[in-house]
Specification:
Oligomer: single chain
Number of domains: 1
Number of helices: 7
Strand content: 15-25%
Distance between the termini: 24 Å
Shape: globular
Largest sheet: 6 strands, mixed
Order of helices and strands: EHHEHEEEEHEHEHH
CATH class: Alpha Beta
């Protein structure tokens, strides 16, 4: 099973993007996931209204992933937001990382106003909560490049499972435990959250497959408690 994980770099108003740190953190987990039959592909997407569409098309055609899970920063949120839909809208006011504004109001003109995510959002939320991570379902992915990315993937990708998780700014890992009152994850917590989302997604897809592979499903299920509490 091939799963594509993406993150973003900095953009106006966010000099540091935690998802840019998540990608190399997950790179260290490739071998671990490979033992469970999961091939992990990692990519950084441009925070650019025009270029992101080309990058997504390239990744989809080259990798043909079974699942795509995008991660992006929501600067005003203090919890992990599992996005359950994308809206066919773009902000005409916000600048992307290149300093440009969106040239149109719709992500894809003439297509539906909203598209529902096709990944196990509720199961991921529940698993994150069991792991002690603050997480909520969300119906508002915004009107910036994050929302555009989810809408484009849902509209055009060949993947069977497609979703997006917004993350808050990270808690500093060097702060004393008593000072950590925000509830935001540090990089270790964010990496755990991503691994949980990956494993829940893989388990769901294998359960849906005709002629499922019991050994692999059991391996994924057995891995969840370890990752949640390690």
């Amino acid at each position: 099973m091939r799963i594509l994980i993406t993150g973003f770099g900095s953009f106006p108003g966010a000099r540091k993007n935690p998802t840019a740190l998540l990608i190399p953190a997950l790179d260290t987990q490739r071998a671990r996931l490979a033992r469970l039959g999961i091939t992990l592909d990692l990519s950084m997407l441009p925070v650019n209204y025009v270029k992101v569409a080309h990058k997504l098309e390239e990744l989809d055609e080259t990798l043909r992933p079974d699942a795509i899970l995008h991660f992006g920063l929501a600067t005003r949120r203090k919890y992990l937001s599992i996005e359950t839909r994308a809206l066919n809208r773009l902000s005409l006011l916000r600048f992307d990382a290149s300093g440009a504004r969106a040239g149109r109001r719709a992500v894809i003109p003439g297509t539906p106003h909203s598209l529902r995510s096709i990944f196990p959002a509720r199961q991921i939320e529940a698993a994150l909560r069991r792991a002690g991570l603050r997480a909520r379902l969300s119906v508002n992915a915004g009107s910036y490049v994050c929302n555009e990315t989810l809408y484009l993937s849902l509209a055009r990708s060949h993947a069977r499972s497609i979703g997006f998780i917004h993350v808050p700014q990270l808690e500093r890992s060097d702060r004393p435990v008593r000072a950590k009152k925000s509830g935001r994850p540090d990089l270790h917590g964010l990496t755990r959250a991503a691994l949980i989302a990956i494993l829940v997604t893989a388990r769901k897809l294998r359960q849906e497959d005709s002629g499922t592979h019991p050994r692999q499903i059991r391996a994924v299920q057995d891995s969840l408690p370890h990752i949640m509490f390690c």
